Amino acid sequence: MDRESVETFVYQFLVEKGYSLAAMAMKEQSNIPQKLNAVHEDLASGMLLKYMDELQHFRKRENDHSSTFRKKAKFNLSDFTEPVQNNDHPSYPVVEYASINDRHKKNILCCRLSDAGVLISGGADRNLVFGNIDGLPEVAIPSSSTVITETYKAPVLCVDMHPHLPLYLIGLMDGATHIVDHKGTIVFEGPKHSKYVVRVGWSPCGNYFCSASYDKSLQVWKRVETEENGAMVTFAHAKTFRYDGSVECFVFTHPFVSKDGDEKDTDSENRESEKRICEDGVSTEEIWELIVGVRGDCCLRCYRINDPDYIECVINMNELGDDFVSFSARDLSVSHNGKYLLVATDKDRVLLISRAARCLVKVFYGASNDEYSNPRCCWDSTGNYVFATSQTNEVIVWEARTQRMVTKLEGHTAAIRDMHFSNKNNVLVTASFDKTIKVWGPDVEM
């Protein structure tokens, strides 16, 4: 149901039930006051209650049909640590540490913050900018003379950091993909798409990277050679996936393994093998799952990257497992324990998907996003809180175990285009069309 219809039905309910003050306040703040004026002339009475009754009847009717499907989709509170309540000094970001407004002259499109405190940002001005942030939480912003800027042929739409080497993967509006060093110098020419590249990303060990484009394709590249100093790498094309819609997002993660029907923490089990793989280079074949979100698709597509056939499985994002498309995945983030997948959508909701059951278990409401938005989502360093951007120029923060909205990060004056949580520094970085980058962190007790 569209937002205007919801507002209209709620307004009608308030008027019919005699909540005149609430109805008057809603009319004053609504974006569709003329439509609300005609509510009694155009609608049958009791529309909100009518749809609520229909929904209740539908759920009751579908309960037996989908009981097996929903039985598997259990949300286990023990997967999340109950946060220590400290209203004066919460552990999640609530304070704006810094606002950086001198890096780009046009809209800022992407950002990342490394463990070492290097802030990387790309923008519509075709620049990729590197600069250190020192002294967290008392953020010290370096002078412009210490900031490195490199200009490319087209706007920089997306960026990702290599997990171990001082290399950065960038995607441009002209469809180009480059691997650059810490000064922005191109060291490897990646795939060239026929339309702009909206996402790039490294596998957690750095042996693979992917690029996603609005040419409806996603390319996978694999490392094939490393120089002795380990600083320069060579990649070869491994696979191209093509879809009916534009590729909006993807994420690398460990495959989820279940034993006797129980969920299993694959991330902790694979941590030591991942470390060994990284130290040994490409001699050992790692196992990664690639999860892809496509516009106009109610399912997420999952692939085993080490499988030569790239066998596909799907995760249906609809609550009842049907194939009706009412929203699209626009961003993906895997929980630290590997059990859950956070999905930002273009329809006012953020989904929590069980990777074991491969279906929806929770919905976070409070962020406003539509088909023209580019929402982002992520987890905090503890895995107890989730973040999502909203078209209201805010970041909404929820407690994962309860779905309770705990705060809104306000300060940007235009759309937030990208967001990144630095686990080591325990700060959130946001980049906006207001040409600023903001750093958010906990209210540390001094």
Name the features.
446 residues, alpha+beta, 4-stranded antiparallel beta sheet, 7 helices, 28 strands, 38% strand, globular
Could you estimate the helical fraction of the residues in percent?
10-25%
**Lateral arrangement of strands in the main beta sheet:** 1-28-27-26
How much of the sequence lies in strands comes to 35-45%
Class of secondary structure makeup: alpha+beta
- Span between termini: 48 Å
Number of DSSP-assigned strands: 28
Radius of gyration: 23 Å
Largest sheet: 4 strands, antiparallel
Detail the poorly predicted runs: 67-71, 259-285
**What's the shape?**
globular
Residue-averaged pLDDT, rounded? 83
Summary, kept brief:
The protein has 446 residues and is an alpha+beta fold. It is built from seven helices and 28 strands. α1 (3-16) packs antiparallel against α2.
Write up this protein.
The longest helix is centred in the first third of the chain and has 19 residues, at 47-65. The protein is an alpha+beta fold. Helices cover 16% and strands 38% of the residues. The chain has helices at 3-16, 20-29, 33-37, 39-42, 47-65, 67-71, 266-280; strands spanning 95-100, 108-113, 118-123, 127-132, 148-151, 156-161, 168-172, 176-180, 186-192, 197-202, 208-213, 217-226, 233-242, 247-253, 289-294, 299-304, 312-316, 329-334, 340-345, 349-354, 359-365, 377-379, 385-390, 394-399, 405-409, 416-422, 427-432, 437-441. The N and C termini lie far apart (48 Å). It is built from 7 helices and 28 strands. The model is unreliable at 67-71 and 259-285 (pLDDT under 50). The protein is globular, with a radius of gyration of 23 Å. It has a 4-stranded antiparallel sheet, with no helix packed on it.
